[in-house]
Design a protein that fits this description.
three-stranded antiparallel sheet, alpha+beta, three-stranded mixed sheet, 6 strands
């Protein structure tokens, strides 16, 4: 080996929305936005279907609804996201023990040793 490392960056875009669509098949293929439970909230993330209409993280719900009248709001469930994230991180560790979790939906994997087994 020449000392170079191979690092993979895993960034799960639209993670909360994807988890919601996986948990509830009725939401699949539909524009959804994950929001907080309070009256004063913003879009935490949106599905790819909603993004196609211009719905973005940080938007007020009324603003997002203006972009996409069919938008479905889903109140976020942090326990569900943490559980799903943990399972995904465990799967990454099946390929390499060198996993650095950066956030709930982002990690770095050093797969250098894994590549020598190919």
């Amino acid at each position: 080996m020449d000392g170079r490392r191979t690092i993979m960056h895993v960034d799960m875009n639209a993670f909360f929305a994807s988890v919601e669509q996986q948990a509830n098949p009725a939401l699949r293929g539909k524009p959804i936005a994950v929001v907080g439970s309070s009256h004063r909230t913003v879009i935490t993330t949106s599905s790819y279907e909603a993004r196609a209409f211009g719905v973005k993280t940080g938007m007020a719900p009324w603003e997002a609804r203006r972009c996409c009248p069919e938008l479905i709001f889903v109140v976020g469930d942090n326990r569900k996201y943490c559980h799903t994230s943990s399972r995904i991180m465990e799967m990454m560790q099946e390929y390499t023990p060198e996993v650095e979790v950066f956030s709930i939906d982002e990690a770095f994997m050093d797969v250098t040793a894994s590549l020598t087994h190919l």
